[in-house]
Amino acid sequence: MSEQRRRYGLCLFWLLILLFLSPSITHAGRVVKVGVYQNPPLVSYEKGKPPQGLYIDLLEYMAQKEGWELEYIPCRWKDCLRMLEEGKTDVQTAIGYSEERAKRFLFTGEDVLVNWAHIYRRRGAEVNSIPDLQGKRVAILEGDIYEVPFIELLNSFGLKPEVIRLQSYDDILRAVSEGRADAGLVNRLYGRLNSGRFPAVEPTHIALFPIRVKFALTKWGGGSREIKEAIDKHLAGLKKSPGSLYYQSLDRWLGVPEKAVIPVWLRWVAVSAAALVLLFFLNNCFLRFKVKLATREIREQYEEIEGMRDYLQSIYEATPDMVFVHGEDGRIL
Question: What is the structure's pLDDT at 11?
């Protein structure tokens, strides 16, 4: 009996040692199902290739630290939300926070970044403000966090455009590019890095609805709280460390220089400054020419005087008798 108790105590001792040496032991080997959809540069996927994007970089880092095995599940956005709500996925990437969504999902405390909506139009279309959307065809993402507030905004203006609900941001810009929609609502990061693939599309100055973009977890998962705490811990640590994977990934995926937009007034200032510089240059050239001309005239006069002096000197030296000049009254000049 004592031998059995000794073995039991020894096993318990080593189990406690393992627990203390590995704080993440409760997470180790856990399969975490992750919903991914087409929202580059935050997250995207291609058939036969692993998903990529800012969120994927962060999750891979956390999985390595926690010993998770990530299982990525591609889905359309509306399906991603449904699967998360039903507990078919554990984590959803790149999801904007709202009070309504917080009733359905468990959000991380840490934000990954802040995003907002941006309206793009078909090149040349008269869409410069919200009222310009009246009677236009406007494409939006079905189930997008911007969908409800955008419809409410249109109603508050008394506008009745034809709203076209599509399944991805790519579908939206493609519809605008092909003329099936006059304008489309996408998030600003997607538009910034992807609108160049659609030459017939251009951005407007209409920006709306800033939101906090986070990770969300299912409320049905038994380990959701632990996963949330792990994500918050690692994300907070990465954000506090300059040069960390978080900032490297931000630079990698979002570090595309913005196209410089030169204000009209600055163009006029530049033109005016260039004109002043040109005027100064021409005036300087003219003054230099005048100085050069005057200098040449003075030199010619000096040479003429020098020649006259030499001539008179030669006459003086060649005359043996004194020569003087007198006036009509006989005075010596």
Answer: 54
